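pls read this stuff:
=====
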Amino acid sequence: GDLLNSRTANTENSLVWNELFTSDIQKIKSFYKGIFNWTIKKGIDGRYDILDGKGDNFSAIQEESNEI
């Protein structure tokens, strides 16, 4: 299957949102862009929003210290 477009819409029990907290956001951005070719852009709230191959926003990445 096509990993970029494998998300489901309007299907019961489907995963619709993910949150990722990391201490090194640059490594994470490179990792996910390299594997899935996702678009990652800085959101207006300071987090990084992840968009899949369909242009749907389905996740956010936020940088936090290791103490958290």
DSSP finds one helix and four strands in the chain. The mean pLDDT is 77.
